[in-house]
Amino acid sequence: MQPVSIAHLRKTNPKEWIRQFDAWVNSHDPNTPVLSDEAMSRESIYPDRT
Length: 50
Fold this sequence. Notes:
This protein is an all-alpha fold. It has three helices and no strands. It has helices at 6-11, 14-26, 42-45.
């Protein structure tokens, strides 16, 4: 799939935006592991800001 610029998507109609978004979502491996809640916690992302 060819990347589409943000500027183009801002000018396109909602149905085209959704089509492009769905294509982007479907281009990713559905078996990619999900991060744990701990890995996504603020403390984990910003360890120096507790």
